[in-house]
Amino acid sequence: MEPDALAALRGLLGEARVLTEPADLAHYGRDWTRQVAPAPSAVALPESAGEVQAIVRWAIAHRVALVPSGGRTGLSGGAVAAAGEVVVALDRMNRVLDFDPIDRSLTVQAGIATEAVHNAAAERGLFYPVDFASKGSSQIGGNVSTNAGGIKVLRYGMTRDRVTGLKVVTGTGEVLDLNRGLVKNATGYDLRHLFIGAEGTLGIVVEATLALAEPPADPKVMLLALPDAAAIMRVFDAFRSAVALTAFEFFTDRALAHVLARGAQRALDTDAPFYVVCEFDAVGEAEARALAAFERCAGDGLLLDGVIGQSGAQNAELWALREGISESLAPHLPYKNDVSVRVSAMPAFMAEAQALIAREYPDFEVVWFGHIGDGNLHINILKPQALAHPDFVRECGRVTALLGEVIARHGGSVSAEHGVGLLKKPYLGHTRSAAEVELMRGIRRVFDPHGILNPGKLFD
Amino acid sequence: MEPDALAALRGLLGEARVLTEPADLAHYGRDWTRQVAPAPSAVALPESAGEVQAIVRWAIAHRVALVPSGGRTGLSGGAVAAAGEVVVALDRMNRVLDFDPIDRSLTVQAGIATEAVHNAAAERGLFYPVDFASKGSSQIGGNVSTNAGGIKVLRYGMTRDRVTGLKVVTGTGEVLDLNRGLVKNATGYDLRHLFIGAEGTLGIVVEATLALAEPPADPKVMLLALPDAAAIMRVFDAFRSAVALTAFEFFTDRALAHVLARGAQRALDTDAPFYVVCEFDAVGEAEARALAAFERCAGDGLLLDGVIGQSGAQNAELWALREGISESLAPHLPYKNDVSVRVSAMPAFMAEAQALIAREYPDFEVVWFGHIGDGNLHINILKPQALAHPDFVRECGRVTALLGEVIARHGGSVSAEHGVGLLKKPYLGHTRSAAEVELMRGIRRVFDPHGILNPGKLFD
């Protein structure tokens, strides 16, 4: 970046909010992926929508690329700045701006952490249901930009289903105030939904209005042990028919071993190849119906064992077996596949994917878990100690391309909830047609004609 | 249209499926609005997505504009063909293509009637919840293209919340197969949501995959009589806190008078200025809680009277008082305003709108009703016998512009669920900013570079 450009940026934000120290560049230049080395030229810390607008106009004038940056917990490299970009970190825009008890809506700045939104909702007697392991660090702007899902999609939907208003700054520096919390608004294209999942390529999200829900009545959590993969979807169907499920999450014995090795409490004595954590509210006869479903499944040989949480603390312990998986794998530098198919396609897809992976990764440890009630599997390949990281990534990329063909055959997605970013770009064509990508390219030119917003991400 | 163009179209579809008789042109050229005279040059009746694609390619080659056409129950002129266009009527594409019991999804062609979808879902033990008075004629393609809402949005959401897959033909003749029923798919811009509510200006919807719901358990319907406008939102809040409402619909004494004059059964002896029909499922203690809410509201002077349906037949009679309004007004050629604000803004907005309308329409009969639980009001102005229709429309347009300013001040929408079409175009700027409209224009050029899809609708 030219020195006069940097000076102009400092003129906009002040010295203290434009970082250029190597440690800051390294910190703000990457997300939870570790495949691409960070190399931004500066980090800008705006404190208002107006300052974000000023940064965009500055970027246009000086032809500098921007990388919008939230909690940087992303797993596809969407927030990585590896090519001299300026990182626009929303950290200082983390306030609750408004709450309305009639609309049951919370308006927040984009840099607020997901967990802070949970807390803000709870303090007001309500509930923000988008929930996942990185909630302490991830920010709402990032949630919006990847349409974050998580563990309660089954009942409450994705981030998309919660956003009733969105304020964004486009690539031309326009501030758009989209939908403003309306339930019904049939006045042309819903641009709000275009920004949700756009990974910061169409604009920078600066505020969001979120629809809150009633708090869960009396959540019950069960851990189930299953004899084989074929049982998973049959148990899902039995429980879904019995109760209104909030979550239905599965993981393998290998995933459990990693979580237990990190100190989690064993909850069942029975060893099984597959486990499920499910949750539902104990309204009316729900608990009795769930237990009856359990007995029926056990009688049919679909369940080996199970336990139901008897307290909030025990529920938390059961959830920890599922929620702790990602963290327990982190030291092994896992290569992550985050794929989905229609729920009905899951048994056939899973059998084919398992066979492919067993064949192609004979020597790698593979850990399966995920939101199987949404048709979403996380397949984590662990790096063998002896293998160099670049070789490991190259080998995983080769198999991901093969997996992409299986996904395409089953009509699925190469990224269910992690986005495309840098890492999944080579596989986008397995899920989106060439015509779709060309239309996306056209839309991007409309919103970012100068090509300054997260260039190189999503597609070229 | 040039004779060789017409001959080429007949070559594609055969003589019988290209209509040019004056009666057919008049029938297919208009929707439920009566303000613009229909004048299409032909009507095409495709039977497959491939034929729709062929029609689009033909239109590009011969520079002919197309008007996609469903049940033509629209109230904003979005399906009117008044300028020599070719109407593409989806009537013959009305089949159920697929049902999956695990995904609980129904894939249908775009020309299927809304009510036929209700029936197809019920035959499979499930429920399609998008429900409104014109369901017998309206088609799914039109529902998608206006993001249809209706009476059960409070619990089940809009059409947007039900569409998990969409097949469309764009203005360049590309067939897009969007999202294919996936719950989670984070692979770039969700083009599906762009087509929902686009009023046929970006592409022609040819198929939709719809998420079905569990059928309602045991629906209870109440009719409530309220003493004043201020009570409406307070009663809403009391009932919403007591039970999970499926619907909360309001109408005035004038609306009731029209429905009763058309033969509906009176259900309450008490005369009141405002009425509400609400619905909830009688699960657990819901009925007792609703009755307690009723008693509390009556004690606070917010309710004058009420009745709860004791049978399916009585529920239907109560609903008929609300559902019959539009039809009862039709002979009076009403000018329709379909506006929304945030639910919290409703009391202040309604007071201001009522004052404006009383002042500006001293001699016109005005009938208010709507989905007030969604912040959505239908304000119908009835034409006095003595006034010529063009004069009436001009006068209503003048007041609509004033109402638009009130709506803008309250952050609302000039079209909550009817779309923009031709009739609401002059008021679009009260809800969408100039920057938003310019972006919409850019998107339209990407999807329809030849300007053949419903030109002149939504915006110029």
Automatic annotation (TrEMBL), chains A, B:
Q: Which PROSITE patterns match?
A: FAD_PCMH
Q: Identify the domain of life.
A: Bacteria
Looking up Gene3D superfamilies in the UniProt record yields: 3.30.465.10, 3.30.70.2190, 3.30.70.2740, Vanillyl-alcohol Oxidase, Chain A, domain 4 (1.10.45.10)
Keywords for this protein? FAD, Flavoprotein, Oxidoreductase
Which PANTHER family is this protein grouped with?
A: D-2-HYDROXYGLUTARATE DEHYDROGENASE, MITOCHONDRIAL
Q: Which cofactor does it need?
A: FAD
Indicate what this protein is called per its UniProt record. Answer: FAD-binding oxidoreductase
Q: Which SUPFAM superfamilies match?
A: FAD-binding/transporter-associated domain-like (SSF56176), FAD-linked oxidases, C-terminal domain (SSF55103)
- Domain named FAD-binding PCMH-type: residues: 36-215
User: Which InterPro entries does UniProt cross-reference here?
Assistant: FAD-bd_oxidored_4_C (IPR004113), FAD-bd_PCMH (IPR016166), FAD-bd_PCMH-like_sf (IPR036318), FAD-bd_PCMH_sub2 (IPR016169), FAD-linked_Oxase-like_C (IPR016164), FAD-oxidored/transferase_4 (IPR051264), Oxid_FAD_bind_N (IPR006094), Vanillyl_alc_oxidase_C-sub2 (IPR016171)
* Keyword Transcription tagged: no
Which family is this protein grouped under? Answer: Belongs to the FAD-binding oxidoreductase/transferase type 4 family.
